Amino acid sequence: MQGFTLIIWLAPIIILVAGLIVLRTVARQWAAVKLAGAGSASISEDAGDLDGLSEDERLRYRRMLRRELDAEEGLDGRLSKEGV
After folding, report:
1. What mean pLDDT, rounded, does the chain reach?
2. pLDDT at residue 83 above 70?
3. Given pLDDT bands bounded at 50, 70 and 90, which one contains residue 2?
4. Would the pTM of this model clear 0.70, i.e. be above it?
5. Are 44 and 31 in contact (CB under 8 A)?
6. What DSSP letter does each residue of 17-47 carry, written as one string?
7. Which has the least CB within 10 A, 7, 22, 50, 55?
8. Could you give the CA distance from residue 83 to residue 59 in angstroms, rounded to a whole number?
9. How far apart are CA 26 and CA 39, in angstroms?
10. Rounded CA gap, 57 and 42, in Å?
11. What is d(CA 29, CA 12) in angstroms, rounded to the nearest whole number?
């Protein structure tokens, strides 16, 4: 075998090997991103800082959070409850 016939026989093998290498590389990157992202989804240590707030401050933060969430959802406070 020589010339064009050799290319016809070797091309599928080369393409298959290259595809497997690309697939392995992409799978490893996806796994690394998934593992790195799993730690960031946990609750931060700063969440305990709200324990020292007075009831008025907590209520103020809850109202502020509700307004921001409603604005983000497009509700603009129409469905929110001021006491929540």
Report:
1. 79
2. no
3. confident
4. no
5. no
6. HHHHHHHHHHHHHHHHHHHHHHHHTSPPGGG
7. 55
8. 8
9. 21
10. 25
11. 26
Across 49-77, average pLDDT: 83
Q: What local confidence, expressed as pLDDT, does residue 33 receive?
A: 81
**One-letter amino acid for residue 73 of the chain:** E
Helices then strands, counting H and E runs in the chain, come out as 2, 0
* Residues in the chain, overall count: 84
Residue 68: CA count within 13 A, CB half-sphere: 6
3 token code pair: 């010339």
Burial profile 18-44: b = 16 or more Cβ within 10 angstroms, e = fewer: eeeeeeeeeeeeeeeeeeeeeeeeeee
